[in-house]
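Run log // design_07
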């Protein structure tokens, strides 16, 4: 049966690219929007705080599948008069959903920074927005990397739900092969393995980024310089 799956390899390859594209657009847009929503939840102005809060509550409290169907069948047709295709609907749904989770990650990361950092910056005459941009966010970003990475992997897997609006993603390829041969083990097992490979690669990349931005990270060039200095110092002592 796996030779039949090989004959559909182009469909699976296209499905992988569609899945990656949906994940990339949804996550990048979700991170940018989530940054503003997360800052909104930290605002003391009620007209900013409450819309941000209700946004997060709605998209975290309702199933992503329902959100996809609402956006594809109701929101976009009502705004534009017709559907804009599965990619636009899927990307918008993933972006809006991811933004709600990223907003909470960003809010928690900013609140984890000691308040004295902001007070010290303000005491030096630095405006609040500048202090947030140059002092708070760079420190908070280091602590956000693991949960943001988990959200990326979760979004990659959740992108399979877009297949309900006829998206030609990875799961759609498995459904086509399963329907063509009325066999389900091989095609869906293939889909599961491909998702596992993608999440494994994403996990390795996230681990590299997390290590790169950790406080204990020392570039290899600096390591070599420091080791040379220690060897020279040891030689001088002898």
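design_07 sequence
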């Amino acid at each position: 049966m796996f030779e039949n799956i090989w004959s559909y390899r182009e469909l699976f390859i296209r499905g992988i690219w569609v899945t990656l594209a949906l994940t990339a657009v949804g996550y990048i847009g979700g991170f940018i929007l989530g940054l503003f929503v997360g800052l909104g939840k930290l605002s003391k102005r009620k007209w900013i705080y409450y819309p941000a809060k209700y946004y997060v509550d709605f998209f975290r409290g309702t199933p992503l599948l329902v959100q996809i169907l609402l956006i594809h069948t109701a929101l976009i047709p009502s705004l534009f008069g017709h559907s804009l295709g599965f990619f636009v609907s899927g990307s918008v749904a993933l972006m809006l959903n991811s933004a709600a989770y990223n907003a909470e990650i960003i809010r928690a990361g900013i609140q984890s920074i000691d308040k004295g950092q902001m007070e010290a910056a303000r005491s030096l005459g630095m405006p609040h927005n500048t202090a947030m941009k140059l002092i708070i966010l760079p420190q908070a970003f280091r602590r956000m990397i693991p949960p943001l990475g988990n959200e990326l992997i979760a979004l990659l897997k959740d992108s399979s739900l877009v297949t309900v609006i006829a998206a030609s993603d990875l799961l759609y390829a498995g459904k086509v092969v399963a329907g063509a041969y009325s066999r389900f083990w091989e095609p869906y097992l293939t889909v599961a393995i491909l998702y596992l490979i993608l999440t494994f690669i994403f996990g390795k990349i996230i681990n590299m980024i997390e290590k790169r931005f950790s406080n204990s990270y020392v570039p290899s060039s600096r390591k070599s310089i420091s080791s040379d200095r220690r060897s020279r110092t040891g030689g001088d002592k002898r």
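The radius of gyration is 23 Å.
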